C-alpha cells in the first residue's frame, strides 16, 4: 500500500472486486453448462477417433497431420525470409585507407574501430598536437605496430574522424552502396 493511500480506499477496492466476481459467477453459470457439454463432446469425439479400429490408427494419423503442419510452417517461414543481403551485415569498410569495423545496437552504429588493411590487427590511434603558422591543432596517427605498413596521419581529433566514418556509413546505407562492400554479395541491388 502506498503511503498516500487511505485505508478506506483498500476497503472500497475489496468490496467492488467481490461484487464483480459475484456478478461474473452468476452470469457464467447460465452459459457454462453448454460450453462444458461442447468441450466434453469434442474430447469424446477426439478420443473415439484416436482409438477406433481402421487400417491406419487414428493416433498415427494425428502424428502425420502434426508433422505435415510443422513442415508446412517451416516452408512458409523459409519462403518469407529475405533472399538478399541484410544491411546489418554491413559491418566493415575502408575509409581514409584504414579498415573500419563497427556493430549495430538498436539500429545505431556503435563506435567504429580501426584495423590495419594489410595485416588486420586493430590499430591504436595516437593523439598528438602539432604547432605551426596555423596555430595549434590536434592530429591522429594510425600506425600498425605489427607490420608497420600502415602509417597514416589525419589532421583531426579521433572523435571527428569517427564521426566522419559514421557519416560515410550512413551515406552508403542511404545510397545502397553498402552492398558492394559485403563479402560474397551478388551486387544485384
Structural features:
alpha+beta, 3-stranded antiparallel β-sheet, 8 strands
SSE arrangement:
Blueprint: H1 7-51, H2 58-80, E1 92-95, E2 98-101, E3 104-105, E4 108-109, E5 113-115, E6 126-132, E7 135-143, E8 151-154, H3 158-174
Antiparallel strand pairs: 1-2, 2-5, 3-4, 6-7, 7-8
Descriptive overview:
The chain is of the alpha+beta class and 189 residues long. The chain has two domains: 9-80, no CATH class; 87-181, no CATH class. 45% of the residues lie in helices and 19% in strands. The strands form three sheets. It has a three-stranded antiparallel beta sheet with strand order 1-2-5, covered by helices on one side. The protein has a three-stranded antiparallel beta sheet with strand order 6-7-8, with no helix packed on it. It has a two-stranded antiparallel sheet with strand order 3-4. A hairpin with a 2-residue loop joins β6 and β7 (135-143). It is elongated, with a radius of gyration of 34 Å. The model is unreliable at 185-189 (pLDDT under 50).
Amino acid at each position: 500500500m502506498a503511503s498516500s493511500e487511505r485505508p478506506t480506499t483498500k476497503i472500497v477496492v475489496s468490496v467492488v472486486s467481490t461484487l464483480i466476481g459475484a456478478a461474473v459467477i452468476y452470469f457464467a453459470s447460465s452459459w457454462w453448462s453448454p460450453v462444458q457439454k461442447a468441450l466434453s463432446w469434442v474430447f469424446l469425439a477426439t478420443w473415439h477417433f484416436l482409438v477406433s479400429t481402421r487400417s491406419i490408427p487414428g493416433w498415427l494419423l494425428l502424428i502425420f497431420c502434426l508433422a505435415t503442419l510443422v513442415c508446412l510452417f517451416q516452408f512458409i517461414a523459409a519462403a518469407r525470409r529475405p533472399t538478399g543481403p541484410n544491411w546489418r551485415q554491413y559491418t566493415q569498410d575502408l575509409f581514409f585507407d584504414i579498415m573500419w569495423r563497427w556493430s549495430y545496437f538498436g539500429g545505431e552504429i556503435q563506435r567504429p574501430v580501426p584495423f590495419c588493411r594489410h595485416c588486420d590487427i586493430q590499430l591504436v590511434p595516437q593523439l598528438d598536437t602539432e604547432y605551426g603558422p596555423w596555430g595549434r591543432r590536434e592530429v591522429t596517427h594510425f600506425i600498425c605496430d605489427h607490420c608497420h605498413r600502415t602509417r597514416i596521419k589525419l589532421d583531426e581529433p579521433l572523435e571527428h574522424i569517427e564521426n566522419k566514418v559514421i557519416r560515410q556509413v550512413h551515406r552508403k546505407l542511404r545510397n545502397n552502396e553498402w552492398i558492394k562492400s559485403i563479402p560474397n554479395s551478388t551486387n544485384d541491388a
